[in-house]
Design a protein that fits this description.
Shape: globular
Number of strands: 8
CATH superfamily of the largest domain: Thiamin diphosphate (ThDP)-binding fold, Pyr/PP domains
Bound molecules: iron/sulfur cluster
Radius of gyration: 24 Å
Order of helices and strands: HHHEEHEHHEHEHEHEEH
Strand order of the largest sheet: 2-1-3-4-6-5
């Protein structure tokens, strides 16, 4: 049985009483590319030594490195920008928002498995961490495995701040419905499980729901919650910008080059649509910012952080 990662099919076949070999020959970790499969088969005596061929040389020297990033206009970006600014320990979870750990946002410090964010933050508090720990978890992950650890944190009065990033869909795995969307996985209409009443029912007294694009409001509320001695939950709600109905609202912004002095603040939000212009600021000789209109969704987060009003807010509203 040649399968990547765990011996899922191998065990199922063996349970049917059929003799089977798999992980005794092929590795349990990493990608099974043709070279790995061929080499494993040779070592197990399934292929002759003469079947060995050298791994092809791949020229990568001239390719720029392209780590994964949050999409342009991603509604999670402001929260991670603020968490980075506040320099608090952040425990992440599994979803597209895990990308908040990468530079320039660099705002996640632990990430284990689905639902681990709240439990790890709670554990840090129980272990006597002098800092206020934050847990960041997506809406569908919260429904899946965030509720028991939240109840546990409430029950033990852990002074942690949980941020539920509610993008109204299951983002990372391809926009599947979840209990918060009002539809079943088969597309049938269903109930909408509201996050705020659910969190209150878990016993959390301090709960606020904020729009994901409101940079200042997220910062203000987080700062207040970080001073509390009991659990608090901030629900940051803003639909995934790649949802079909959200795509219709995209209106790209632009940078006013005469106002921009290349201060780099908008670069720090990590939006792939913000580029370095070839034009340098006369005084500081720094590259000015430039927005790629083909990528920009017009989320206005860069406009909110620019200290020189060099990125005007959108003038066209699309229903
Ligand atoms: S934040 Fe404003 S002034 Fe600074 S680089 Fe960006 S557009 Fe220019
Ligand atoms: S408005 Fe700014 S932050 Fe939003 S997608 Fe466009 S360039 Fe990126």
């Amino acid at each position: 049985m040649v399968e990547e990662l765990d011996p899922f099919l191998e065990e199922a076949v063996r349970l049917m009483g059929i003799p089977c070999e798999g992980k005794s020959i092929f590795p349990i970790l990493g990608e099974l590319d043709p070279c790995v499969v061929r080499e494993s088969a040779i070592q197990a005596g399934l292929l002759p030594e003469s079947a060995r061929v050298p791994r092809p040389e791949v020229e990568t020297g001239s390719l720029p490195s392209r780590p994964p990033v949050l999409c342009p206009g991603c509604p999670h970006r402001p929260t991670f920008y603020i968490l980075n600014k506040l320099k608090v320990p952040v425990n992440g979870d599994i979803g597209c928002y895990t990308l908040g750990l990468l530079p320039p946002l660099s705002a996640i410090h632990t990430c284990g498995c689905m639902g681990a964010s709240i439990g790890v933050a709670h554990g840090a508090a129980q272990a006597g961490s002098p800092e206020r720990h934050v847990a960041v978890i997506g809406d569908s992950t919260f429904f899946h495995s965030g509720i028991p650890p939240l109840i546990n944190a409430v029950y033990n009065k852990a002074p942690i701040v949980t941020i539920i990033l509610d993008n109204r869909i299951t983002g990372m795995t391809g926009h599947q419905e979840n209990p918060g969307t009002g539809h079943t996985l088969l597309g049938k209409e269903s109930v909408i499980v509201e996050l705020e009443p659910l969190v209150r029912a878990c016993g959390v007294k301090h709960v606020t729901t904020i729009l994901g694009t409101k940079v200042d409001l997220i910062e203000k509320t987080l700062k207040e919650y970080l001073k509390l001695d009991e659990p608090a939950v901030l629900i940051v709600v803003e639909p995934c910008v790649l949802l079909p109905e959200e795509r219709k609202k995209w209106v790209p912004l632009e940078v006013l080059a005469d106002k921009c002095n290349g201060c780099t603040i908008c670069f720090r939000i990590g939006c792939p649509a913000i580029l370095k212009s070839e034009e340098l600021d006369e005084k500081y000789q720094r590259p000015k910012a430039l927005i790629d209109p083909a990528m920009c969704t017009g989320c206005e987060v860069c406009a909110q952080v620019c200290p020189r009003d060099a990125i005007p807010f959108r003038t066209v509203e699309v229903e």
